[in-house]
Amino acid sequence: MTEGNAPDRPLAGRVALVTGSAQGIGAGIAQLFANHGAGVAVHGLEKDRGENLVAVLRERGSDAILLGHDLRQESLCRELIRRVIGHYGRIDILVNNAAIFPRADLESTTVALWDEILAVNLRAPFILCQEAAPHLKRQGGGSIINIGSTCAYVGLPKVFAYSVSKGGLMTMTRNLADQLRPYRIRVNQINPGWVRTEGEHHRQSVVEGHGEDWAEEAQRSLPSGRLLRPEDIAQAALFLATAELITGAVLDYDQVVIGAPRDW
């Protein structure tokens, strides 16, 4: 917490860029950060959803902007950081949340698909961290939060490349935490388990063919009786954004022991 900030607004005066925040986990993080005082750069390719979210955040008093840069392109990743600096004059928190996860196992993963998944899920966070680091150093510190997945350990066969990309992100997190530690730049990661988002609902109900009631069946064996929600992950991100003594941490946020069989 920055000295002088009110306890209920620990992010007052800070600026956060949350990639992939037009919906899902990223939107949950953007809303909570704004509620706690941050100026928030919302990022995503879903223009209508992004515009709606920015409107909501502005109504709540946040200085929010929408950026739609394609993270598959290096130049646009770097431009994304420059746009944030150009608007706010600073960046304090970078949340690398954007990710893609097309379904494909080892045999059906083409080289082109592999390259695209790693470009968005691993290369883009690297570029964004590289571009943001000089600004964070000049400011005397900051926080980078990478959103991974428990699939980083062992994922289902149909998310093979996605799982590998999240494992790479975890390795990058710990290496960057060590490299940036002298500059008071903290780098941490959250590995969510199964989260009930708009995108997951579409995949399970339509793409996977489980129907509209898929979540009710999936939740039966969970200790809490429900799937994780974006706001759950957002609370963890807020903690890491303000926990000034934590770096290099990987928080596995799930209700199932890593490696244990799932009932559904």
Describe the 3D structure.
With 264 residues, the chain is of the alpha/beta class. It has 2 domains: 202 residues, 3-Layer(aba) Sandwich (Rossmann fold); 31 residues, no CATH class. The chain is 45% helix and 13% strand. The protein has 8 helices and 7 strands, in the order βαβαβαβαβαβαααβ. A 7-stranded parallel beta sheet has the order 3-2-1-4-5-6-7, with helices on both faces. Strand 5, helix 5 and strand 6 form a beta-alpha-beta unit. Helix 1 packs across helix 8, helix 3 runs parallel beside helix 4 and helix 4 packs parallel to helix 5. The protein is globular, with a radius of gyration of 18 Å. The model has no long low-confidence stretch (mean pLDDT 90).
- Level-2 CATH architecture of the largest domain: 3-Layer(aba) Sandwich
Largest sheet: 7 strands, parallel
Report the CATH C-level class of the largest domain: Alpha Beta
Kindly state the percentage of residues in helix: 40-55%
